[in-house]
Design brief:
The protein is an all-alpha fold and 246 residues long. 67% of the residues lie in helices and 0% in strands. It has one domain: Ferritin (Up-down Bundle). The radius of gyration is 18 Å and the shape is globular. The two termini are 32 Å apart. Helix 5 packs antiparallel against helix 6 and helix 5 packs across helix 7.
Length: 246
């Protein structure tokens, strides 16, 4: 279960950090506050997974140890969430690709035979329902807006599309988790994510990029260069001043 919990925790932790980078830089105050709240939701979800893993390990480690004292090769997040923010359209596209998977994943995880995981999923689903609505609405607004906004959001999907496949391609530990009943069968949620994607792209008057070769490796610790820079910033205080407390 260790790698499965790390996948869930690292996905939300890294995406939460990326969204937190927008704090104070959003295109308008309301959007700035919305993205900061999304970030807080995701980091809160990661805490729940890290805390559960720390308890299962029984080694005296804490959520902070798991978040701030591991190197890039030990992270199990998908490559999509570590991609840089870029412009607002690229952030929206990245979030929508993740949210349209995350929502249905959590719905399925609510049926986990692990009561703790099912409870975390049920709590997280309430937040992610809003996340999916937020990113969906912005995809539509940008896609069906001006020529410039349409071009930018289309370019964002074209750029990020090769990272989408990893979300729905199970790693060996995910297959094991699904077989044991505490995980999710990714094949079972794929039609739901595809339908949601098709619906929003249609409303946004966007072209679906062609499927082909997909990026992978994040789930087994092979990451893009971007994660190293992200962790250097995210982990700096803990590593420079170990065991500091507020």
């Amino acid at each position: 279960m260790r790698d499965f919990l790390l996948l869930l925790a690292d996905n939300t932790q890294i995406l939460g950090h990326r969204l937190g980078e927008w704090c104070g830089h959003g295109p308008e105050l309301e959007i700035d506050m919305a993205m900061t709240n999304l970030a807080l939701d995701l980091v809160g979800q990661s805490r729940n997974y890290y805390q559960y893993l720390a308890e299962l390990e029984g080694k005296g480690r804490t959520e902070d140890d798991l978040a701030y004292l591991r190197d890039a090769r030990e992270f199990r997040n998908c490559l999509l969430v570590e991609q840089p923010n870029g412009d607002f359209a690229r952030t929206v596209a990245r979030n929508f690709l993740f949210d349209s998977w995350h929502f249905f994943f959590l719905q399925a995880l609510c049926n986990s035979n692990d009561e703790r995981l099912a409870a975390i999923a049920a709590k997280s689903l309430k937040e992610v329902t809003y996340h999916l609505r937020w990113s969906s609405e912005w995809v539509i607004r940008l896609g069906d807006g001006t020529e410039e906004s349409h071009r930018r959001i289309q370019d964002a999907f074209d750029h990020l599309w090769t990272y989408r496949g990893e979300l729905l391609t199970p790693a060996p530990f995910e297959t094991e988790a699904a077989s044991a009943g505490y995980g999710v069968d990714l094949h079972s949620i794929k039609p739901l994510t595809e339908d949601k994607l098709a619906d929003i792209l249609y409303q946004a008057t966007l072209r679906r990029p062609e499927d082909g070769w997909m990026q992978s490796g994040g789930k087994t610790g092979r990451h893009s260069e971007h994660l190293g820079y992200l962790l250097a910033e995210m982990q700096y205080v803990q590593r420079a001043y170990p065991n500091s407390v507020w």
